[in-house]
Amino acid sequence: MSGAAVSVQTLAVTLSGRPILHEISFAATPGEVLAIIGSSGTGKSTLLRTLAGLVSPERGGVDVRNGDERARIAVVFQEPRLLPWLRVAENVAFVMQGPRPARRQRAQAALAAVRLEGCARIWPRQLSGGMAQRTALARALVTSPHLLLLDEPFASVDALTRMELQDHVVELWHQHRFTVVLVTHDIDEALYLADRVLVLGGHPARVQAELDVSMPRPRSRTDPRLLALREPLLHALATPRAVSASGG
Ligand SMILES: Nc1ncnc2c1ncn2[C@@H]1O[C@H](COP(=O)(O)OP(=O)(O)OP(=O)(O)O)[C@@H](O)[C@H]1O
Ligand SMILES: [Mg+2]
After folding, report:
1. Mean pLDDT over residues 86-94, rounded?
2. CB of 17 closer than 6 A to ligand 1?
3. Atom of ligand 1 nearest to the CA of 49
4. pLDDT level of residue 240 (50, 70, 90 thresholds)
5. Which terminus of the chain has fewer CB atoms gathered within 10 Å of its CB, N or C?
6. Is 16 in the pocket of ligand 1 (CB under 6 A)?
7. Last residue of a domain, one of 144, 162, 183
8. Across all residues in the chain, what is the average pLDDT?
9. Residue 37 Cα to ligand 1 middle (Å)
10. In the prediction, which pLDDT does 114 show?
11. Over 90: is that where the pLDDT of 126 sits?
């Protein structure tokens, strides 16, 4: 599988007459992992929903491309959004089309990829928060997306589980090389996972800063080069003007 090329050009989004996003432009190359951070209510989810085609731009546009073909896009939201009346494997198979045995087989493989192969027959209410979020990840992966959109997918789990889930994403990225746009509040998560971090801010929101991480994955959370990038990122979050810095 390959990753999608993403291009966002002078994007403006208005919701209920209120400008939310203004003049947003950025691009992601196939297989790139992009993190978007910014304070609450800035418009991060709106941007992700626009990338997913769930929100129509007022001006400008979004282009997500897999070579000459339309790219498959999958979204993992902050809450797992599992259907309580379907078993775990059925929740994963639900998003697929085609004959039932083939769907069941693919669902089982997707669950194995997030190490939940033993949970196929149980109900969502029997899952822990981290397991439910892994199921949501499996449901996203089962469609073999070229672009994976993650909206604070690990915000509601404890710190240890969160690190485990981040490592899952790194592992899956190594296998599939999809393009990722990750929305997060967590600076360390952004630095651990992303090739590039965009800071969104202002009303309406613009891209206020961009930080190049450019380090191979898997990374060490205590790598001094990563830790050194926390400061420019914190500075960019606190200062409403453009700065740029890079790792290397
Ligand atoms: N349907 C809507 N109509 C009007 N305004 C909306 C609508 N949906 C969201 N908004 C507003 O758009 C702004 C951006 O919302 P969004 O959910 O994108 O922010 P966010 O950065 O994801 O915040 P958080 O970090 O809290 O998730 C908010 O001020 C919100 O009130
Ligand atoms: Mg949000």
Report:
1. 94
2. no
3. 18
4. low
5. C
6. yes
7. 144
8. 90
9. 14
10. 85
11. yes
Closest ligand 1 atom to residue 43 Cα is 18
pLDDT confidence tier of residue 214, bands split at 50, 70 and 90? confident
Q: Do 66 and 152 share a structural domain?
A: yes
Q: What is the DSSP string of the chain?
A: --PPEEEEEEEEEEETTEEEEEEEEEEE-TT-EEEEE--TTSSHHHHHHHHTTSS--SEEEEEEEETTEEPPEEEE-SS----TTS-HHHHHHTT--S-HHHHHHHHHHHHHHTT-GGGTTS-GGGS-HHHHHHHHHHHHHTT--SEEEEESTTTTS-HHHHHHHHHHHHHHHHHH--EEEEE-S-HHHHHHH-SEEEEEETTTBEEEEEEE----SS--TT-HHHHHTHHHHHHHHHSSS--EEE--
Q: Is the pLDDT of residue 177 over 90?
A: yes
- Residue 95 resides in a domain: yes
Domain count, the chain: 2
Expressed in angstroms and rounded, the spacing between residue 190 Cα and the centre of ligand 1 is: 21
Closest-lying ligand 1 atom to the alpha carbon of residue 38: 21
Decide whether any atom of ligand 1 lies within 6 Å of the 135 Cβ: no
